[in-house]
Amino acid sequence: MASKRALSSLHSIASQPSRVHPSFAALFSPRPCSQRTPPRLVPQRRWNSQPTHPSPSSTSATPSEPSDTPAQFKEPQPIKSWSYEDILALTTSPSPSPKTILIDVREPRETAAGHIPGAKFLPITSNPDALFLPPEEFEERFGWQKPGPEKGVVFYCKAGVRSRAAARMAREGGWGGEGGVGEFVGSWDEWIRMGGGVGR
């Protein structure tokens, strides 16, 4: 009963616009159904639904073409294995301008006992940077001209271990050129065993 009286009092107050605020009176003023604003429905997103807008990863992008073609590198030549006969032929008919240079990579204390005739000296153990020196510094340190790209080179040591390492480093350093890089596999031990000549 009390609630009906309170509701009647509110209607009577709302019917007197001069006593209440217009927005309060509008709450109780009757409005046609056609003028009522329908409630706005907000779609609810399910927990496993996919977003409707495209994500950056789903957008397709056309890859850009490279500006230049990658340079084509020439495959290095394999290291040639030289036999005793090959070295003998190289040393028995020496040329004032040989196409292939024979290089002894042993240390001075070893070469003091003798070397293969015509060989150049390049002690690789005490000079590990020798194969990568510029021509001027190379000649100043070892006393002979660094081979150009038109010269082939073949290395030897006492038993073939250091000569193999020197040949690999020489190939990495750009030695050999047209003549290529080689190693005397048997080296000094085979040369002496086979009766090769000894230079002093």
Structural class: alpha/beta
Note the run of SSEs as H and E: HHEHEHEHEHEH
Overall pLDDT metric: 77
Radius of gyration: 48 Å
Distance between the termini: 136 Å
Which oligomerization state do the chains in this entry correspond to?
single chain
Continuous helix count: 7
Taking pLDDT < 50 over at least 5 consecutive residues as the criterion, the unreliable ranges are 54-64, 66-71
Strand arrangement across the biggest beta sheet: 1-5-4-2-3
Please state the overall shape, judged from the principal axes of the Cα atoms: globular
Number of DSSP strand runs = 5
Q: Major β-sheet, in short?
A: 5 strands, parallel
Strand content: 5-15%
Q: Helix amount, in percent? A: 25-40%
Give structural notes:
This protein has seven helices and five strands. The protein has 200 residues and is an alpha/beta fold. Strands 1-5-4-2-3 form a five-stranded parallel beta sheet. Mean pLDDT is 77; it is low at 54-64 and 66-71.
Structure in a nutshell:
The chain has 200 residues and is an alpha/beta fold. 28% of the residues lie in helices and 10% in strands.
Chart the SSEs and their pairings.
Elements: H1 2-14, H2 22-25, E1 80-82, H3 84-92, E2 100-104, H4 108-111, E3 120-121, H5 135-142, E4 152-156, H6 161-172, E5 181-184, H7 187-193
